[in-house]
Write the structure tokens for this entry.
Amino acid sequence: MTTVATMRTKASESKTHVVPKPKEEQTNTNMEAEIRTRAYQIYEQRGRVDGHDLEDWLQAESETTTERREAA
């Protein structure tokens, strides 16, 4: 994912430049997306029963963290 920075020229024209996010921020964003996806999978496996969102998130976070640690 990238951020957008705008610079002004002498003629008051805007130029848009793409500035890449730092590697650590990209990794955190990717990990959050993995956790979100896994939490939704857990929710679906539970039969889409509401009221367990925090439990599902924490389980997904634990699984994702463990998988990443083992892969390193």
About this structure: The chain is about 60% helix and 20% strand. Residues 21-71 form one domain. The radius of gyration is 19 Å. The beta strands are 2-8, 14-20.
